[in-house]
Amino acid sequence: APVTTAAPDERASGAEGLAEELRRLGDDVLAAVAAVRRRLRRAWLALLAAVAGVGGDWWRPAPGSARAGVSRLRRGLTPLPAAEGVVWRPQPWRRALAAGLVAFGLWTLLDAPTLLRNAQGSPLGVRRSVAVSLLRPVAAVSDGLGLSHLVGAADRLMGRHGPGVVQVVGPSTPNRRAHRARVVAAPPPRPATDALPPLPVPSAVAPLRVLVVGDSLGVDFGGPFADTLAATGVVAAAVDAHVDTGLARPDYFDWPGELQGDLGRDHPQAVVVFLGANDPQNLVDGGSARAFGTPAWDTSYATRVGQFMAEATGAGARVLWVGMPPMQDQGLDDEMQHLDALYQMEAAAHPGVTFLSSWTVLGSPQGGYSEYLPGAGGAPVAVREPDGTHLSPGGAERLAQAVVAAMDRGWGLSLAP
Predict the structure, then answer these.
(1) What's the pLDDT tens digit per position in 299-322?
(2) Could you tell me whether strands 288-290 and 270-274 are parallel, antiparallel, or unpaired per DSSP bridges?
(3) I need a labelling partner for 188 at 20 to 30 A (CA). Which of 48, 122, 249, 355 fits?
(4) Sign, Cα dihedral of 94, 100, 104, 109
(5) DSSP code of 248?
(6) Within the chain, which residues score under 70 in pLDDT?
(7) Measured between alpha carbons, how far is 235 from 407 in angstroms, rounded to an integer?
(8) Phi, psi values for residue 384, rounded to 5°
(9) Which residues pair with residue 273 across a beta bridge?
(10) Angle between the N-to-C axes of helices 255-266 and 295-314, in degrees from 0 to 180, rounded to the nearest 10
């Protein structure tokens, strides 16, 4: 078949047309970039004005003078008081931006191991994989230069000991809210409903030793609960709670190992557990992945919960497992109900373990999520934080009172006033 080819002048005109289109496209891109730069500059100047307290439309450049706004800014700023011999000079915004970027990069390098650890603790998926891949080499550089040891030493000097909250409150320890210790008379031991021998009647000389463990909700709950126990005058409480932790990811935080250390150090007679909000995610068991919501996941997770309970009871402690509260997000709320069913099932299978649902304590009369609930006087009290997940101080105190009452009912104690 004959092949038709374009004449040289046609090919030339086609090439010129393509080049013209490319030039127009380039002009449009340059114009867009210039417009973005102008808007960013105005936004930057507006931010400086907000920080400096300069009002009005000073940042809008006058016609024909792109720097008029800057001059008005400089006139409106009140210089900081300078020490003798020190002269304050305004810095170009590019230099300030560069300094901020350098500071951000330095912080990333110094804190890379912690950032990598947080990324490794995030739910399995593409986002976690990308974050871990980006942070791993930075963390390796930080460790190689010894920067992580420098950060750790600085944290220890400032009294920081990791992302967890460790608190010990006893009858003779002044607590944060300055509760007046309540002297509890020594009633005769009552039978415990868990069919175990009754606990010794606690006293100021021989207080009941209680350990509280949990995640970020445990952080919210642990402090007020420890204060409530300390106010009895006959309880010594230790709180060990760590943000972003749970039983689903022992590769990120080893709760069984943590509990083992707590049991050996504090020798608690009772362990109160309040964690699980971070556990609705895929997990790995025996080298095999388990997707959340599947029967295989339920089996693996329930086994871990049961082993955690057995670890505490094997050390001679009773366990009170507090279920997760209602959540504002419906998906998370459904997941918490699913976990609560597993907790309750495992508690029933382990002697010495009691399950307490927080649903009736922190939920609405209809059994759903509620940010406010009636207080002792009938006035509404905030029981949840605005994020719809965590407990407010009022909610933590409300749950603390319910847990103390459950300890009295289940263990034959008389701690509640």
Answers:
(1) 999 999 999 999 999 999 999 999
(2) unpaired
(3) 355
(4) positive
(5) S
(6) 1-19, 21, 25-26, 28-91, 93, 112-114, 116-126, 128, 132, 143-144, 146-195
(7) 12
(8) -135, 155
(9) 213, 321
(10) 10
- Asked if residue 116 lies in contact with residue 129, where contact means CB atoms within 8 angstroms, the answer is no
Q: What residues are paired with 322 via a beta bridge?
A: 356
Structure tokens given for 51: 């920080």
Query: What stretch of H or E contains 320?
Result: strand 318-322
**Helix axis angle, 93-110 to 8-52, nearest 10°:** 90
Residue-by-residue DSSP string for 129-142: HHHHHHHHHHHHHH
Amino acid at 314: G
Structure tokens at 337: 């109900």
Q: What count of other Cβ atoms lies within 10 Å of the Cβ of residue 218?
A: 28
Q: What is the pLDDT of residues 392-405, one digit of tens each?
A: 999 999 999 999 99
Burial 251-274 (b: 16+ CB within 10 A, else e): ebbebeeebeebbeebebbbbbbb
118 burial (CB, 10 Å; 0-12 / 13-18 / 19+) is middle
In terms of Cβ atoms closer than 10 Å to its own Cβ (0-12, 13-18, 19+), residue 35 is: exposed
| Degrees, nearest 5: CA angle 333-336-340 | 140
Return the amino acid letter for 319: V
Strand 372-374, strand 208-214: pairing: unpaired
Q: Closest Cα partner for 241 from 208, 278, 207, 206? A: 278
Tell me which amino acid residue 118 is: N
* CA separation for the pair 302, 271 (Å, rounded): 18
Would you state the structure tokens that stand for residue 10, as one six-digit string? 């046609």
Q: β-pairing, 270-274 with 208-214?
A: parallel
pTM over 0.70: no
